[in-house]
Amino acid sequence: MPKHADLKTGPGHVAIIMDGNGRWAQQRNRPRLFGHHAGARRVREIVAACPDLGVKYLTIFAFSTENWKRTQTEVAGLMSLFRKYIEREAKALLKNGVRVRFIGDRIRLDVKLVRLMDELELLTADNDLVHLTIAINYGGRDEVTRAAKRLAYEVEMGRLTHNDVDAETLSRFLDTRVLPDPDLVIRTSGEARISNFLLWQSAYSEYEFVDTLWPDFTAVEFARVLSSYGRRERRFGAVLA
Ligand code: FPP
After folding, report:
1. Which of 7, 65, 187, 221 has the fewest CB atoms within 10 Å of its CB?
2. Whose CA is nearest to atom 3 of ligand 1?
3. What's the pTM?
4. Is residue 28 part of a domain?
């Protein structure tokens, strides 16, 4: 049985692929970054809604390992937006009981951003109301590859043998090692793809694809998606009695 957050009270862990910022901006004849800024305001609203909706873990896809292929202007604008988000929101996140973690490979990120990420993780480390995980320079294949590499190193050092390698051991080397698997993955903007998000962890997750573009995705719609999840029966590959 995969590890999951408390299923009785609703989806304990929700993961979101926040898609559609670019199209939202385009519809308004504005640059793509305008859409990302509107998207950041939605992040604030959705995080704030989590405690009332029984969402203990929220994981959001902010920047993928493939997003470096976008124009230099967009990439730099997004990186600057992440810095501003951390600087502006840190106090409120701390006060509101949100524990923030980041997943993804930090090696390619600007040192100033990485420092802010480390500081926010440390600042909020004692919070336990909502666990917000932000994926930056994250890719599921990249994460599993990095985990396999570390595992191979442990074997090379003689601290593990090949017989120790199983799903449980590999999970302990993933960026998400302390998180439960997501119960529900939501993708906005009408695209029905996983796009390399939480590949390993979402093996048994439910998926919801909604047409709304991310900057239009309100807490009310979030609540509606969660309640439709509550009506489903999950089997994890087994037959329930
Ligand atoms: C996908 O929309 C969105 C992104 C690549 C960036 C997500 C970032 C945010 C929501 C900004 C704020 C995040 C934080 C954590 C402060 P897209 O640009 O691919 O949209 P499109 O498919 O319409 O072009």
Report:
1. 7
2. 19
3. 0.94
4. yes
Write down the pLDDT at residue 235: 67
**pLDDT attached to residue 9:** 55
- Quick one: pLDDT at residue 1? 38
Q: Is residue 124, in this structure, part of any structural domain at all? A: yes
Q: Which of 16, 17, 21 to mutate to test the pocket of ligand 1 (most atoms within 8 A of CB)?
A: 21
Centroid of ligand 1 to alpha carbon of 73 (angstroms)? 14
DSSP string, the chain: ---BS-STTS-SEEEEE---HHHHHHHTT--HHHHHHHHHHHHHHHHHHHHHHT--EEEEEEEETTGGGS-HHHHHHHHHHHHHHHHHHHHHHHHTTEEEEEES-GGGS-HHHHHHHHHHHHHTTT--SEEEEEEEEE-HHHHHHHHHHHHHHHHHTTSS-GGG-SHHHHHTTSTTTTSPBPSEEEE-TT----TTSSTTTTTT-EEEE--S-GGG--HHHHHHHHHHHHT----TTSPP-
User: Which domain range does residue 29 map to?
Assistant: 11-140+183-228
Structural domain contains residue 174: no
Confidence at residue 179, expressed as pLDDT on a 0 to 100 scale: 98
Tally of domains in the chain: 1
Assigned domain for 68 exists: yes
Q: What is the pLDDT of residue 145?
A: 98
Catalytic residues: 19, 67
CB of 113 shorter than 6 A to ligand 1: no
For ligand 1, whether the C-beta of 187 sits within 6 Å is no
Q: Which residue has its alpha carbon closest to ligand 1 atom 18?
A: 22
For the chain (241 residues), the mean pLDDT of every run of 10, in chain order, is 49 95 98 98 98 97 98 98 98 98 98 98 98 98 98 98 97 98 98 97 97 98 93 70 54
List the residue whose alpha carbon is closest to atom 1 of ligand 1.
19
Instruction: Find out whether the beta carbon of 98 lies less than 6 Å from any atom of ligand 1.
Output: no
